[in-house]
Amino acid sequence: MAPPFITFEGIDGCGKSTQLRLLASELRLRGREVVTTREPGGTPLGARVRELLLDAREQVDPLAELLLYAADRAQHVRQLVRPALDSGRVVLCDRYADATVAYQGAGRGFPASLIDEVVALATDGLRPDLTLVFDLPVEESRQRAAQRARRGGEIQDRIDAEEIAFHHRVREAYLRIAAAEPHRVRVIDASASVEEVHAHVVRVVTPLLKL
Ligand code: TMP
Question: Which of 8, 60, 87, 175 sits between 20 and 30 A of 182, alpha carbons compared?
Answer without folding.
Answer: 87
